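User: Please predict structures.

Assistant: First:
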Amino acid sequence: MKSIRKALEALKLLGEPPHEVGVGDVARALGTTASTASRILAVLRDGGMVEQDPATRRYRPGRLAAHLAGGFTRQSDAMACVQDAMRDLVATTRHSAWAGVLRGPDVVVLRIAHGGFPVRFAVEPGRGLPAHAAALGKALLAQLPDDEVLRLCGRRLAAVTPRTLRTGRALLRDLAATRRRGYALSDQELFAGIRSVAVAFETATEPRALALGLSYPLFSIDRGEEAKLVEALLDQAMIVGRRVGDARWQTRTPPTPRARGG
């Protein structure tokens, strides 16, 4: 029975975005060794509950897990709306668009669409980034009560760049500003020379919020252009929010763009 429970816990991990795991992920989640995690995944793979990507060696839901995929299907519907917005943002702004979800103190990047500028980010879908440093993460954290934010992130925050927020108190002030503005801002806190803005959505069918963001190199824009980028993001946020049934975006008027400061 103990082994069955561990197998079920491993399957639960696949029920959350990005819907794939490695041996190390399972070992950490189950508090077991890598060899034990590998054996559990091998049994699930042989039974058709999971399948292994031959290139990445990571595991994803298999054909016999299709009946468990209702939540994934609903997330994909919301993701389709966000991907439409990402394409429009890239076409309009020529900058990079992102989508992600919160997982503990990290934001997991689900999708990235690169713009026309030569600056590219070495971030692959499935990677976790510190939520307190990323605009996507801040947009999602702003959906939570302050005590939950502190529980997830702690009171001392790891520095990624010299501009990263260092304390839980500073993060709470930033999230309060995010809620007032209607969008989150990361000002070179994750990548030096890069500013990012993001918004978050909740749906009636998914307990997990989904974030949409836009990143741009500071050398590529001036003050007036930056306000237009934020406005483009908010325009798409209104469209996505209404499509996924987020009441906040259905009824609100977007705030006046103000990308600097806050």
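Second:
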Amino acid sequence: MKKKMLALGLTAVMSISILAGCGGTGGNKASEGGSSNPAATENTGSSSDKKKFAIIFKSTGNPYGEKEMEGFKNAIEENGHEAILKAPDQPTAEAQIQMVEELISQKVDSIAVVGNDPDALQPALKKAMNAGIKIISLDSAVNAQSRSTHVNQADPERIGRTLIQGAYDMIGGEGEIAILSATSQATNQNTWIEWMKKELEDPKYANVKLVKVAYGDDLRDKSVSETEALLKSYPNLKAIISPTTVGIAAAGKVLTDKGLKGKVQLTGLGLPSEMAEYIESGICQWMYLWNPLDVGYLAGYTAEALVKGDITGAVGEKFTAGTLGEKEIIADGDGTQIMLGDPFKFDASNIAEWKSVY
């Protein structure tokens, strides 16, 4: 699987490099204040053929989100269209709703949203859909009534169970563990946590106790404070699992500053570029993730296929997602989804080759 994932990651990076060499895909970040950054693209067709594709991430200042939006932008520009990148200052549904309203007035063709709440955005997204705008979610889903389909990073069950299994191995099968999540409303985080709890129901975890689920709201300072609070409240804590790139990096810094290497283990979902120092130092033996560039890239191609009418979001439909190849829409509860792939394990044996990738 390592070779497959490495090839996938390198393919995405090569695509970015090639396009950048053509003067097209500099990494556009969401601007401060949550305003949009329309991507400057070369018009490969007539102006009437050029569509507007928007993406709304959770909040500004998140390296994972910046990579996800960059991947989305790459996909949209590959097809000769305009990408609009947006993210609010704070990870709230209210801020995202305001952005959806703005995009409706701009008459965009599609909106891809990383939901800060699964249900609160429904009225605004339904309004957009009624205006003829194609809606998808990615990463953190909105409910099925608010979208045509959802782009998922990996199988939620595999993620949740894998994180518990990893922590179990790190602590030798016994001790207290805690989870440092993003926001309490994040659908992806909550789904992973539910699968973590289900994995803990296995008798093999009889000596492992989940003492707390803390929320850092995907904000660095709050994640640092929550980590410090966990260590103070649970002096016998053996491991922290953080299924958020902001949280795991914040926890890594706290454990480093407090000299807790080997005393409190750390795993979760992290960016290789941010976690390399903690893996190399031994603070974090290993962690997991997928390529956020590819998540955004797949979302871009999904939105484009919807706008073209190649897909409607129904189970069984297939389309080609650029360098990622053919993808199929599958069931997702009351709705549908497109799965990117399996989570990948990063440790001391491979972090050096990945930390410069993303």
